[in-house]
Amino acid sequence: MQSTRIVLASRPTGMPTAENFRTETVELPALAPGEALLQTLYLSLDPYMRGRMSDAPSYAPPVRIGQPMVGATVSRVLETTDDTVRSGDIVLGYGGWQTHSVEPVRILRRLDPAAAPPRTALGVLGMPGFTAYSGLLTIGRPQPGETVVVAAATGPVGATVGQLAKIRGARAVGIAGGPKKVALLRDYFGFDAAVDHRAPDFAEQLAAATPDGIDVYFENVGGAVFDAVLPRLNRYARIPVCGLIAGYNDTELPPGPDRLGLFMSMVLRRSLTVRGFIQTEFAAEQYPAFLADTAGWIAEGRMKYLEDVVDGLDNAVEAFRGLLVGRNLGKLVIKVAD
């Protein structure tokens, strides 16, 4: 079996370009015991992939030059040497940016297309949804009547955070880029308020949307967005730090004065809790409850999701570049095969 794949050709400096990737066709190895041959149906594109393109120290090893880009996939089992899955099964795996892959069966999770669309295992019922669930409930701990603010709020993590805050009785305020996304937060996802971080009066909009301050800020962006959030934080506010996409392509420190001292002074004076996290640290204890809770909320109409599906693996590079500047609307997924 041959596989067409997109590999990392070189490490980017700043925004990734087409030259940092290479498309090639390779022969896949024969199956060893406990393995399955998979055909990729859908590929998830996520901001963390930019970090994996760099060889700087991080929570996960970098993608090696000449190796396929990493990524979660929804795939069809074509052949297997392990009877825990069968030919034709639809599974969640980690095949990456390629049309076919060979993976250990022990890491696969069988999906039931009758229970939920398989693509949701890459979004609201997958890693992004669980990131929101574990980070908000474990670190943010929203209480009824509190104000929860989330950046990148129309993305799969942010949208889930806001709706989960509402389910917990809190007030949800979303930050997004552009009038279309702001309207989506209010009209589709049901946020109490939404503000446009691209507007010249963004800080004033945020202040008006949070008259009682901010009790939980779910951080996905960093940069100028956090600068506007910081003065609004209440005493004992909690900040789950999930991502900092505003700086993922930076090649040097941002200009201006060093504001670390100001931030640390705020942490001290307002007794802030700031906690970075990777969702895998909570998975063993919380993932089954997350799946049950979220599936129930979707069935009840209390949790909505949005997908941005791009057709063709050959469009993955440009779609990924767009993701890094907020061009997508909802969970970004590449449709690789029917």
TrEMBL record:
CDD domains named in the record = PGDH
Annotated keywords: Oxidoreductase
**Per the record's keyword annotation, is Metal-binding included, yes or no?**
no
SUPFAM superfamilies per UniProt:
GroES-like (SSF50129), NAD(P)-binding Rossmann-fold domains (SSF51735)
Q: Where is the Enoyl reductase (ER) domain?
A: 14-334
Highest taxon of source: Bacteria
Q: State whether keyword Acetylation applies.
A: no
The GO terms this record gives for MF are: oxidoreductase activity, acting on the CH-CH group of donors, NAD or NADP as acceptor
Q: Coiled coil: which residue ranges?
A: none
* UniProt-listed PANTHER family: PROSTAGLANDIN REDUCTASE, PROSTAGLANDIN REDUCTASE 1
Q: What is this protein called?
A: NADP-dependent oxidoreductase
**Which species is the source of this protein?**
Nocardia terpenica
